[in-house]
Amino acid sequence: MSSPKGIRNYKFRIHPNKEQERKLTNWLATCRIIYNSALADRKNYYERNSKGLTRIAQQETLKADKAKRPQVKKVHSQVAQEVLFRVERAYNNFFRRVQAGEKPGYPRYKGPGQYKSLTFTQFGDGLGASFQNDKLKLSKIGLVKIDLHREIYGKAKTCTIKHEQSGKWYAIITVEEYPVLYSPNWQSIGLDVGIKEFAVLSNGEKIANPKHLQKSERKLKTLQRSLARKKKGSKNRARVRLKLAKQHEKVRNQRKDFHHQLSNQLVWKYGKIIVEDLQITNMVKNHSLAKSISDAGWGEFISMLTYKAESAGRVLEKVPPHGTTQECSRCGNIVKKSLSVRIHACPHCGLVLDRDHNAAINIVHKTKAS
Ligand SMILES: [Zn+2]
Prior knowledge:
Layout: E1 7-15, H1 18-49, H2 55-68, H3 70-74, H4 77-99, E2 117-120, E3 129-132, E4 135-138, E5 142-146, E6 155-163, E7 169-176, E8 188-193, E9 199-201, E10 206-207, H5 211-229, H6 235-269, E11 272-276, H7 278-284, H8 287-295, H9 298-311, E12 315-319, E13 343-345, E14 352-354, H10 355-365
Parallel strand pairs: 8-11, 11-12
Antiparallel strand pairs: 1-5, 1-7, 2-6, 3-4, 4-5, 6-7, 8-9, 9-10, 13-14
The protein binds zinc ion.
């Protein structure tokens, strides 16, 4: 879920023309074959020799295949070789689980249409992938139109081309970030997951999910209900299922954009951001809230906020969540309230405010030195 420090993925929609799309589709089909045969080779080799086949040995096989099969030769060599890294990763994961005493299934072969992405492992002028005149230049494919809706801060390292279920193409560019250190700022802010809103800040500000995201989520729910009513195996069901997959993708992308924007703003504005420790939060808070947390992608948001804060030289502190909702943020007395009670009204000191706002202030109080 979280990215290693300083590495970040940028996802952009790309618009290959018909010819480019045809080539990319062929490459995906060829890479699928490379993937499946490399996996089969490993399996056979292991069964005969009781030891593993290495990626280096598989690279030799790939080279030989290239000479024999024109379709393999058509695929850019970086892209073809990267497939072997994927096989190696799948295999290593499998063995790690075997060694841990689990009973994992053997790494799966990819069926038609199940191999969906290609990776250029080198990015830059004269390498497999690069930018040229606001377009994405892919070696052996050409200049591809790209929607660069966000500026890239850092050095691009690799580029993965992905064909999503909706039929849309994307480029995922992995970037090593330049450290951007913001000027010092001692302002603290507490952040609590909202029940109605996405988040509530300790200054009382409520942050709602953007309208277009709410609308897309509503549509998603409608489609889910509609799918449940369709007869199994019917044409209608297949049609709704495809629509649903497209809608899921749309919601995912919109949510991610929203998370990027919000985390950028917070890191820009505040020197210290305080949130509840998520792992404990899920255990403490009740089920319906836990569900709303997962719905809102809170965990993904916090991991995004964490790496952005780190790379900007900001402090992100996680505090234990105990009592943040029930305690009065002014006098410290416990004011019991159920989930349906939206207002914190303290009989001891008279404080009245939104329950989530009260919780966000308590989150700030829990830091070591706020
Ligand atoms: Zn009070």
